[in-house]
Specification:
Number of strands: 12
Number of helices: 9
InterPro entries: AAA+_ATPase, ABC_transporter-like_ATP-bd, P-loop_NTPase
CATH architecture: 3-Layer(aba) Sandwich
Distance between the termini: 54 Å
Shape: globular
Largest sheet: 6 strands, mixed
Radius of gyration: 19 Å
CATH superfamily: P-loop containing nucleotide triphosphate hydrolases
GO molecular function: ATP binding; ATP hydrolysis activity
Strand order of the largest sheet: 6-7-8-3-9-10
Keywords: ATP-binding, Nucleotide-binding, Translocase, Transport
Organism: Saccharopolyspora dendranthemae
Oligomer: single chain
Helix content: 25-40%
Protein name: Iron complex transport system ATP-binding protein
Mean pLDDT: 91
Low-confidence stretches: none
Strand content: 25-35%
Structural class: alpha/beta
Bound molecules: adenosine-5'-triphosphate
């Protein structure tokens, strides 16, 4: 049970406010997608929700303010995978993913069978088993991305914040990752917040979308409500058609201007 509530959050860097006026609720086991053009403030918002960036307003999980939680309890409550992670040198893939289990270890700090089982399952599900003993710095971009996500998933926190989790992943690995996250929310009631540039994937996986534009919420609702051709034109300056799958999920496809002489 880990519902998330954000109340009138504002955050930024030094004296510059980058995001403001964000209020939203994500039910236990729900999935909120944060979308918006480059520089809109998506990563800043996610970092502020994670408690990694000073902010005003409140972030509550099951009604409890995150700032009131001790470090270990907080790590069991909320997990965050950054868009561009800093990876420690010299660790193997397995050791790095095991770090995600730290908030669950007993007084001696030794991992047990259940921790290893969680890690092994993630290695399998994220197609990393063949890389288990490899050093982090030898991984390709997509392999590194999957390893970082595996660590955040190993944390088994009630709230999972993922910043652009599919960046650098091919279409198959992107789907496996999002399917796995979807299963965690169904099986464990994990509450998910992701930023996603791929609007079609965002529409397929998230229950609700929050569109940020210039740091403020410009639209908030179901994917079909938020992803309109007007919204794409206004906030992304994009030419795009919005098609729909039989169940009504929007599919965004860019369209090219057919100006004579430009092909
Ligand atoms: N560490 C920082 N210090 C100062 N300004 C920052 C910092 N990080 C981000 N910004 C600025 O804050 C604004 C929002 O950045 P942010 O990374 O949150 O946007 P975003 O929506 O995630 O963008 P993108 O889609 O390009 O990843 C941008 O103008 C950016 O230049």
């Amino acid at each position: 049970m880990s519902g998330l509530e954000v109340r009138d959050l504002a955050a930024g860097y030094r004296r510059r406010t980058v995001v403001s006026g964000v209020s939203t609720t994500v039910d236990t086991g729900g999935w909120l997608g944060i979308i918006g053009p480059n520089g809109a403030g998506k990563s800043t918002l996610l970092k502020a929700i994670a408690g990694l960036l000073g902010h005003t307003g409140e972030v509550l999980v099951d009604g409890r303010g995150l700032s009131s939680l001790r470090r270990r309890e907080r790590a069991r409550t909320i997990a965050y995978a950054p868009q561009i992670p800093q990876l420690p040198a010299g660790l193997t893939v397995t050791d790095y993913i095991l770090l995600g289990r730290t908030p669950h270890l007993g007084a001696l700090g030794r991992e047990g069978q259940s921790d290893l089982e969680v890690v092994n399952e993630l290695l399998t599900r994220l197609d990393l088993t063949h890389l288990a003993g490899r050093s982090l710095h030898t991984l390709s971009g997509g392999e590194r991305q999957r390893t970082v996500l595996a660590r955040s998933l190993a944390q088994r926190a009630g709230v999972l914040l993922l910043d652009e989790p599919t960046t650098g992943l091919d279409i198959g690995h992107a789907q496996s990752l999002l399917d796995l996250v979807d299963e965690l929310r169904a099986e464990l009631g994990t509450t998910v917040v992701t930023t996603l540039h791929d609007l079609t994937l965002a529409a397929q996986y998230a229950d609700d979308l929050l569109l940020l534009s210039d740091g403020v919420p410009a639209a908030h609702g179901t994917p079909a409500e938020v992803l309109t051709p007007e919204a794409l034109r206004t906030h992304y300056a994009a030419r795009a058609a919005v098609l729909h799958t039989p169940d009504g999920t929007p599919v965004i496809t860019p369209t090219r201007d057919s100006t004579p002489g430009t092909g």
